């Protein structure tokens, strides 16, 4: 059981809560700070909003350029798999300019690992997100068992709805005709 606000009408609604704990109507969202980070699961996404019940975080951004006129951020976490992962707001629920920062460590001692302001900023803007022009995407390798924290905020004073998802590489044989075919694999490892 996960205690939290289960009523979507409140700004501190927790989409992962399974048991109402009486917190609906409080002033902050559960994941307004690092310690309350919501877990991301491979192959799933969460629909969130940073307009209400969230504060601007005083922490260094991890993308190439620092966020300009940053807006409130919300925190997420996931565990490293030892393979590549993609964290992205390039999903249908995103409607504003997002800024992604990925950190490693603990909430009191975070170290930047990767970041992105606009999905294609590192490639000369040749691969724009087709869903939300200025959505953010980070693809990176992870260390097995390492805890990663993700901060999603807005830039240029923008805020609103965003959808964040985690995709994880699963190496294996993707040839259905092979005797060692792995139906869960999404990256062919040459085996």
Give an overview in words.
- By secondary structure, the protein is mostly beta strands.
- The chain has no helices and 13 strands.
- It has strands at 3-4, 19-20, 38-39, 44-49, 74-79, 84-88, 98-106, 109-116, 137-141, 147-154, 161-168, 171-172, 187-188.
- The strands form 4 sheets. Strands 3-5-10-7-8 form a 5-stranded mixed sheet, with no helix packed on it.
- The protein is globular.
- The termini are far apart.
- The relative contact order is 0.21.
Quickly describe the structure:
This protein is mainly beta and 191 residues long.
> How would you spell out the order of helices and strands?
EEEEEEEEEEEEE
Strand line-up in the sheet with most strands: 3-5-10-7-8
Model regions low in confidence, pLDDT < 50 over at least 5 residues: none
- Give the helix tally: 0
- Amino-to-carboxy terminus distance: 40 Å
| Helix and strand composition category | mainly beta
Largest sheet, in brief, is:
5 strands, mixed
Q: What general form does the structure show?
A: globular
Average pLDDT metric: 86
Question: Roughly what percent helix?
Answer: under 10%
Determine the strand fraction and express it as a percent band.
25-35%
* Rg over CA atoms: 17 Å
């Amino acid at each position: 059981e996960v205690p939290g606000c289960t009523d979507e009408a409140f700004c501190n609604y927790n989409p992962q809560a399974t048991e109402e704990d009486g917190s609906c109507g409080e002033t902050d969202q559960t994941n307004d700070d690092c310690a309350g980070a919501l877990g991301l699961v491979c192959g799933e996404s969460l629909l969130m909003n940073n307009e209400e019940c969230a504060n601007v975080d005083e922490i260094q951004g991890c993308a190439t350029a620092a966020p300009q006129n940053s807006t409130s951020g919300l925190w997420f976490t996931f565990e490293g798999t030892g393979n590549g992962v993609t964290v992205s707001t390039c999903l249908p629920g995103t409607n504003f300019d997002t800024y992604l920062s990925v950190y490693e460590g603990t909430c009191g001692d975070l170290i930047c690992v990767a970041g992105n302001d606009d999905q294609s900023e590192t490639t000369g803007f040749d691969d724009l997100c087709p869903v939300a022009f200025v959505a953010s995407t980070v693809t990176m390798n992870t260390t097995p068992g390492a805890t990663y924290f993700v901060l999603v905020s807005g830039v240029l004073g923008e805020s609103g709805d965003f959808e964040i998802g985690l995709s994880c590489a699963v190496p294996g044989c993707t040839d259905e005709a092979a005797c060692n075919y792995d139906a869960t694999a999404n990256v062919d490892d040459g085996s």
